[in-house]
Specification:
Layout (H helix, E strand, L loop, with lengths): L2 H8 L2 E2 L12 E4 L3 H7 L4 E5 L4 H10 L3 E4 L7 H9 L4 E3 L4 H10 L3 E2 L6
């Protein structure tokens, strides 16, 4: 699924000028613990998080995540936006809670990034 479709599903705003139609998303990781993000993400993963700090974006850059969605209406600061633009990391924000956002994306057919088989 492309990130532009995810933006519509989550009714999310964007903070970067990256064309969301060019970003392919294969899996979702919903986490507020960066150690979980480090342990369970795969290629082409979109991170949904309630954490709003520069470490989230540094983690996204290091793991080559396809973007970050801040949940619960949280908004990145100017330093974060600048970092995201410089590193071509799409930033989105939705008013939906993490549970609802992940559920909507799961219902739309996007798999979670967990390496475990349940």
């Amino acid at each position: 699924m492309i990130l532009a479709e995810i933006q519509k599903i989550l009714d999310a705003g964007t903070y970067t000028q990256i064309d969301l139609k060019d970003v392919q998303v294969e899996t979702i990781c919903g986490a507020d613990l960066l150690s979980d993000v480090l342990a369970f993400t795969k290629e082409k993963t979109l991170l949904l998080t309630g954490l709003v700090n520069l470490q989230v974006l540094r983690t996204a850059e290091m793991l080559d995540l396809v973007g970050v969605v801040f949940v619960r209406g949280k908004v990145p600061n100017e330093e974060m936006i600048k970092f995201a633009i410089e590193n071509k990391i799409p930033l989105l924000c939705t008013k939906r809670c993490m549970y609802e956002a992940c559920g909507l994306l799961f219902s739309a057919g996007i798999a979670g990034s967990s390496t475990r088989n349940y």
